[in-house]
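haha ok so turns out i had the wrong file open the whole time. this is the CORRECT one, sorry everyone. sequence first:
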Amino acid sequence: MKHTVLTSLTYKTEIEQADELVLIDFWASWCGPCRAMGSVLDDISDEDAVGVKLCKVNVDDEPELSDAFDIRVIPTLVFIKNNIVVFRTKGSKTAEQMKELFVKYK
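then structure:
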């Protein structure tokens, strides 16, 4: 699954103007569960993620964006549709769980 690095500067363009479901993955390079979640997202095929835009936020690089979403635990996954948070979850998920979430929130 391809992803976009999200920053405070690109937020408006990438999230507020998105037509599809957006998944924001809040992570850090030193976080083992974050790396595991990243691998799961990488392994999900583009076909399984049709209609989902993946954005990644490194919490160390983007503290303002992390604070705006009240991120206290990583990994945290935030699903946004029509610029509204529709679901958020903490911790790693399996590929099957992610695919189910994509279907549920598209």
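The domain at 3-105 is CATH 3.40.30.10 (Glutaredoxin).
again sry for the mixup
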